[in-house]
Task: structure prediction
Amino acid sequence: MRLTSIFATALAVIGITAASAAETPVTFTKDVAPILEARCQICHRAGQIAPMSLMTYQEARPWARSIRQKVLAREMPPWFIDKNIGVQHFSNDVSLTDQEIATIVQWVDAGAPEGNPSDMPPPRQFADGQAWQIGNPDLIVTLSKDVVVKAKGPDWWPDILVDPGLTEDRYIQAVQIIPTKGRPVIHHIRTSIVEPEAGTRHSGQLDGNVALEVGEQGVFLNEYAIGKGGDVFREGSGRLIKAGTKINFQFHLHSSGTETPINVALGLKLYPKQYVPHHVITSLTVGVNDIDIRPHETNVRSDGYMPLIKPARLLSFQPHMHNRGKAECLEAIYPNGKTEMLSCAHFLFNWHLNYVYADDAAPLLPAGTILHSIMWHDNSAENKFNPDPDAQITWGERTIDEMGSAWLSYYYMSDEDFSKELAARKAKERTLASTR
Ligand code: HEC
Result:
């Protein structure tokens, strides 16, 4: 498959829409402000992670060209799923429609006019982001002491391991991360589960805010990024957290000009003791641990494979690479030999996005399906995140090494449950088709 062709088509389609609909005058107050409110201001306002506020015409006007470029390239808002391939329904989709992009482009191309101030929509009210959307957690895990982000410095990716003191195995029903201090410097947070067996490999002391040794990042649990609420697992499903498990917090921190202490609360809602959910969710990576990228190479492909031993429901897809990551796809190779591309996404190192399939679109995969992840790396100077295009790059856990994998969450089902889910899906599709 040709990578460039997939992404080129997306832009061409948008370009045509933008050109042909240019008759009605587009203004900031009437047409653009509602889009910024809905899709941008969550990050682009005072005290948030984005570099500038986009709340008013005066604030947005100087950025018009840059906004045009970023939305057309689908770099903003951060959501990099290829719109022309695979599943298109996600429960956490924040992307703009082609029509919204066309509107912004027309506005900029018309000289970014303000329009009638009375057309301006009422300002959007933002919650302070400190509320538990999953309900009151049964367990809250925080850092024993604040981490201090210096006033000035390069972006920083510390790992901090915390022992939540779990004395028995439990199943997680919902999970959410809330930054409790220093939100403006927290670009994102990933948590992972480090099971007791894995604990023997690390050498640092626990919870003294010690950076972890290689190999201690555990299994992906969840993620905080601005605008994201909690993850509530589907009815009857949950994730196991074993007694003695530690939580690894991986931060992406970004200096803001003022020394800022940060802290965070990870909230877990647990199923009752002894309760085992009908579907137990697994999260793991499908990828490679062997990468060899020569200097200045632009399109280095690697492939990972994992067979599903039972019928499964795939819940989410998260590309994982480092600085030189470029794009990633996930394909299903069915037992009958047919293949289907489930998802493709661009990759920008700044953003670690987890694409959560909507309930009515989550792939239902028969036993014997092979999940196939395809990763592309770009070690050229064209890649703005590349710290050194002259370097020969191999696989490793440090940010300066590379990785290539898909973090996937799924659960296995009995043959009976699978047939039922498939039948329900087909019935729904028939209903949808007949109402069109
Ligand atoms: C999830 C938070 C988030 C959302 C939502 C978001 N942005 Fe951004 N934006 C950022 C961050 C952070 C940056 C800084 C660069 C980076 O990290 O990619 C940025 C950078 C930009 C830039 C480049 C600024 C520069 O310095 O050149 C533009 C333009 C932009 N955003 C426009 C938008 C628009 C328009 C929207 C909505 C359609 C939007 N953004 C939605 C977080 C966000």
